[in-house]
Amino acid sequence: MTLPQRQHAQLVTLTVVAASLALLSGCAKAHARTVPEGPALLVPQPPARVIVAASEPPPLPVEEPIAQPVPPVAPPVVTPRPVPAPSARVARPEPPDPPAAARVAPRTLRAPGDVARERAIRDRLAVATTDLARVDASKLEAGARGQYDQARRFVQQAEQAIKDQNLAFASTLADKAATLAADLAGR
To answer: How many domains does the chain have?
Structure first.
């Protein structure tokens, strides 16, 4: 070993020994010692246990039930019902068809705010449909074609949500369709 290598090895060894002593000296220092306050608690002795054997109560005298004669029950009398002759049956007339006015589905009452909201959603869908009509889907690349198809599906789902009177969902779908359609029309 050359002189610089030997000095380096000694320096490393000295550093390791110094670090070990520094770490181990922490263990030799002050330990927490507490002085008990007052006398130790005295635990009382447990009470003596007295075990008493349980005695069984004397058995109660069993009384024999007095048998009383039961009167015989007569079997029920079954009388056959007369079956009317086939020609004697009366044909019940079918109820008349309800008038055309009664067959019309009941109209759903809507609040004025719902009508205005539905109109706004339909306007947004019309804008989206117009923007999609201006786009030539055959000239779009794969990613843009996927957006085009997604916008079409949003329009269809929004129309179905309007039919189902789910205006909150229809509004969200119409906004998404309009955003995608405007993006595609701007390309």
So the answer is: 1
